[in-house]
Amino acid sequence: MTELRMFLVQTRMNFIWYFRRDGEMVFWTLAMPVFFLVLFSFAFSSGPNSGSSGFLVPGIIGAQVLSSGFWGVGVMLATFREKHLLRRVYITPMPPWVFFASLVTYRMALLATQAVILIAVGALVFHVHVIGRPWEILAVLLLGTATFVSLGTIVGAVARTTESANNIASVLTVPLAFLSDAYIPIDRFPHAVSSALRLLPSTQFIDTLRDVAIYGVPLAHYGAWMALLALWTVAGTLISARTFRWL
Amino acid sequence: MVAGLVKAFGSVVAVDGIDFAVQPGTIFGLLGRNGAGKTTTLECCIGLGKPTAGSIRVLGLDPTKSRDLAALRPKIGAQLQATSLPEKANAGEVLELYAAYYGIPPRTQEMAERVGLADKLDRQIAQMSGGEQQRLALALALQHDPDVLFLDEPSAGMDAFGRRIMWSEVERLRDAGKTIVLTTHYIEEAERLCDRICVMQRGRIVADASPAELVAQFGGDAGVSIAADGFTPDAALEALGTWTRTGSQWKLATRGEPGLALAAIVTHANALGAKIVSLDLHRPTLEDAFVALTGETILEVAQ
Predict the structure, then answer these.
(1) Are residues B95 and B147 in the same domain?
(2) In B, which residues are within 8 Å of A21 by CB distance?
(3) C-alpha separations of B66 from A25, A92, A237, B51, B69 in Å
(4) Are residues B92 and B169 in the same domain?
(5) pLDDT at position B302, please?
(6) Given A5, A126, B146, B246, which is the most exposed site by the fewest CB atoms within 10 A?
(7) What pTM, to 2 d.p., does this model score?
């Protein structure tokens, strides 16, 4: 009961502090993906029904999930540590799960807002129709977020400073976004390369999200990939728990 | 209780084998210059540092063991030196959040009044002055009514107003039977608040006593100095202590009560008809004791 109240109060505070009072950050977080959608849609499009926007909407949502994990959680944790914020909460009775769960809840809400905006812009401007089952789409998104938050936490754990966390997050997020079928179809690469890239959890997550959401493929088709993502999540969580430093 | 505590950071030994015990219900102070090892010692007591050697017990619990630390956390409060709060948060929200951490109903208004922040509850951390942030940190340390309160340089960055508030809160807690452990490099603060003081220097404890005992043992002699035309001490005054003379200035160093010596000196000067030009009484202070113990003044002299 006490811990639930801690979680609720912490979550409410996260929303007030990092959402309501950080308008600039929220604006850019929400505007950048829309900008990417518009830019890449026109850059890659050979006609109104070429399908590039349909490719991009889930791709960009997926890329946001990656950056949310590595930047939003990983870098944020490193910043909290560097600013000596973590050591203050470390000496309170608050259990670690409360802190992480509320951070993840806040990130998920931000992601959900991004996704809704991207889907709306996609539908209204580019005639992208999301035909997948909502709960299946949600399940893929939740699992993907869990995966990349747990991997992002490792970044926050191993990086000694905000700067090094930033560097690690950039090195991971930017190439992954381009190599994981998010912005550019990896089918354009030689077959051997694209097959190799399909071993990445980010590719598996984004491809599944796209096929389920845009092409209405039943999620059951991707059971194996989902199991792999779950495995990454478990591994990421275990490694984070082992390596995370509050001080 | 701390026994044989050693804490090294790489090759730098911050705390070099110290022992002390804190009586429950008292205010205990670690007094020393910056870098003496006070903060390191205090942080080891609340689980923010793992000792290289030695043992620590707080309320019978070992803060280096995670199970003990978990049991200890709700019973202690701390105001740290190296710490910060979320910049976008306001004072009221932080108090509410910390109340939730300790599973108690928020006492936002009450705490804000106690530390003089009642009209600043909706001010964001980033907009608060250093002193206001310190007072908020004190409120956060006190809100859950801890059995042991740890304060690391609590008055650093505080103005006179904040210091007065902090002192009265600390005394109020002690009067309620709680234990306070603080570090300070302000002699005045140590003298005013502490029931017992450990003087630390370069990672070691060089003295452990009450302020009055420290002054009596290490503060040296009291002094009375007089400058008066035609004054010379008589036999009765000679017996009070050691006299030295610099020009027309006579100085008595005495172990006895300097007030009585002063009265006798004035009477004698009047009897001689010597016109008193200046008269000064000096009692040994904690500062004198500190200098005698460590061979340095407590505040580094600016280069």
Answers:
(1) yes
(2) 88, 124
(3) 37, 13, 20, 14, 5
(4) yes
(5) 46
(6) B246
(7) 0.88
Q: Which runs of consecutive H residues, i.e. helices, occur in B150-210? A: 160-175, 187-193
CB B117 within 8 A of CB B95: no
Choose among A2, A13, A94: nearest Cβ to B93: A13
Mean pLDDT, residues A122-131: 90
Residue numbers of A between 4 and 23 with CB closer than 8 Å to B: 5-6, 8-10, 13, 16-18, 21-22
Question: pLDDT (tens digit, 9 = 90+) per residue, B132-147?
Answer: 999 999 999 999 999 9
Cα–Cα distance, B297 to B290 (Å, whole number): 7
Q: What is the pLDDT of residues A140-161, one digit of tens each?
A: 999 999 999 999 999 999 998 9
Does residue B66 belong to the interface with chain A, where contact is any CB pair within 8 Å? no
Q: Which of B128, B180, B194 is nearest to B158 (CA)?
A: B128
CB proximity under 8 Å: A 103-132 to B = none
Across the range A212-218, mean pLDDT stands at 93
Provide the terminal-to-terminal Cα distance of chain A, rounded to the nearest Å.
28
Q: Is B297 a member of any domain?
A: no
Range of the domain at A164: 55-243
Q: Which residue from A173, A179, A185 is spatially nearest to A197, judged by alpha carbons?
A: A179
The pLDDT of B29-56, averaged and rounded, is 92
Which tokens hold the place of A13?
């505070």
Contact, B114 vs A13, CB < 8 A? no
Domain span at B125: 2-216
What length does chain A have? Answer: 247
DSSP 3-state of A173: helix
What is the DSSP secondary structure assignment for residue B75, as one 8-state letter? G
Residues of B in contact with A87 (CB under 8 A): 48, 80, 82-83
By the CB < 8 Å criterion, does B44 face chain A?
Answer: no
**Is B145 in the A-facing interface, judged by CB distances under 8 Å?**
no
Nearest residue on chain A to B45, alpha-carbon basis? A91
Asked if ipTM goes beyond 0.90, one says no
pLDDT: which is higher, A242 or B300? A242
Is position B303 within any domain?
no
Looking at residue A48, what is its pLDDT? 47
Residues B105 and B239 in one domain: no
- Which token pair is B223? 């002094």
**Is there a contact between B190 and B211 (Cβ–Cβ < 8 Å)?**
yes
Report the phi/psi class of residue B237: left, alpha or beta, with left for phi > 0 and alpha for psi in -120 to 50.
alpha
The string of DSSP codes covering A97-156 is: HHHHHHHHHHHHHHHHHHHHHHHHHHHHHH-----S-HHHHHHHHHHHHHHHHHHHHHHH
One-letter amino acid for residue A197 of the chain: L
